[in-house]
What does this fold into?
Amino acid sequence: MTRVIAAAEWGGEFDGALDPIIDLFRFPPLWEIELLGVDLSINRTILIAWVMTLLAGLLMFMAFRQPKIVPGKLQAFGETIVDFVRQIILDIIGPKGLKFLPLLTTMFIFIFFMNVAKITPFMMMPPTSRMAWPLFLALISWLVYVGVGMKEQGAFTYFKDMVVIPGVPKAILPFLGLIELVSNLILRPFTLAVRLFANMVAGHILVVITLVTIHVFLPSPTGFPVGIFGLIASPVVFAFELFIIGLQAYIFVMLTAVYIDSSMEPAH
Amino acid sequence: MEGTLNVLGYGLATLGPGIGLGILIGKAVESMARQPEAAGMVRTTMFIGIAVVEALALLAFVLAFAL
It folds into this structure.
């Protein structure tokens, strides 16, 4: 961030300002902590994550602290979110998937709040644009759907059906089995993580470029039309980012539900 | 001229998923217009399809920076 703003204030020398681009995502540690040789330093990303988690927890706690039959405003808001996730589960898994409602609702709210830090003033940085967060969320999803598959179908049947797919001609079985195995165990969690990560990275870069454009061009005597264009474009960019934020949280939860559904049913 | 070919590669890699998304969403809209009562089911399936097609472009986006 600092290099971009510095380049902006020197009069828009963009040569090398956005290069390396990882400078937009990597922050220096505020407090150096090292425990048993593991670097546990606190930086801006983790502070944002803490604040957003606290905010999400507080909001949900306030919403469901004293549930009433006739919900107040906050409770109605909370119930809308839970009902939204419940509808996803009913559409994809069916009534027997309702035991995953707490997990998927938590996932949805967590991802949404982590992403929304991207367009929150004074934060402007989604923690999910560091690979650790989406990867960990995808790991939870992976553990859940593999665990469900092993519990519902038995460990042996689950893995056997993944490689030796029933009802497939013998000739193409080796290829299809391999593809299925790799796709189920490696590609699924990887694409789940990369989808969230790449969307957040792209969105963060877009927001930074929009804001830096305003910062550079609006005060300059010759380039101010570009600055005015940026000023008009920035609400559009922010609205688009809000849409992406919601969509990514929705898609993550929906794909987790699809994967859970596919490991609940025996292969057919 | 400076830079890497990665950027060009990313641009090329978006072509396939772009065409795919166009066909996919177009077909979904078509079927929703033909049968509005099935809109919910079509929309869910459409999003699953989008997620699968989009993965290619996203992999390219990440690899453009990583490689």
In short: The interface with chain A takes residues 40-41, 44, 47-48, 50-51, 54-55, 58-59, 61-62, 65 of chain B (CB under 8 Å). Chain B has a mean pLDDT of 87.
